[in-house]
Amino acid sequence: MGTHNLNADNIIKFPNGLIGLSEQTQLQLFHETTQDEPVVHWLQSTADADFSMSVISPSTLGMEYEIEFTDDDLKSLQLDNPADALVLLVVYKQTDDNNNIKVVTTAPIIINAEKNLGLQKSLEETVFH
């Protein structure tokens, strides 16, 4: 994919970093400009051009999430209405013989798009609709 030009309007701040990657606190959300309705977006670190993740909307897979936010989650996201949250799932290619595509369904990324704040939430129990 290479390095993408940074656009300050698309930088999402993750005050607590990502799960297992606490140093990743600012990531730019973007998609290829050649697509009218992109399915895959990327989150690329602003500090490390070699770190990026592919993300998709759960609706791409016909899934909807019910996520219970803690007070700390809402404070971190500065989210007044949980319905305003954007939910994304990390997608990756498994490095086995089949190069299978996998989706992380138990640790969605939640973004307050108005305030460009995000968090990755580990779900003990996942409820899909």
Explain what the structure shows.
The chain has one domain: BH3618-like (Roll). It is mostly beta strands. A 7-stranded antiparallel β-sheet has the order 1-2-3-4-5-6-7. The protein contains 1 helix and 7 strands, in the order E-E-E-E-H-E-E-E. It has one helix at 71-77; strands spanning 11-13, 26-30, 41-45, 52-56, 85-93, 101-112, 117-120. The mean pLDDT is 83. Helix content is 5%, strand content 33%.
What is the average of the pLDDT values? 83
CATH topology: the name is BH3618-like
The total number of structural domains is 1
Order of helices and strands: EEEEHEEE
Structural class, from helix and strand content? mainly beta
Shape by Cα distribution: globular
| CATH top-level class | Mainly Beta
> What percentage of the residues does DSSP assign to strands (E)?
25-35%
Largest sheet: spatial strand order: 1-2-3-4-5-6-7
> Main beta sheet, described?
7 strands, antiparallel
Number of helices: 1
Q: What is this structure's SSE topology?
A:
Elements: E1 11-13, E2 26-30, E3 41-45, E4 52-56, H1 71-77, E5 85-93, E6 101-112, E7 117-120
Antiparallel strand pairs: 1-2, 2-3, 3-4, 4-5, 5-6, 6-7
Quick recap of the structure?
By secondary structure, the protein is mainly beta. It contains one helix and seven strands.
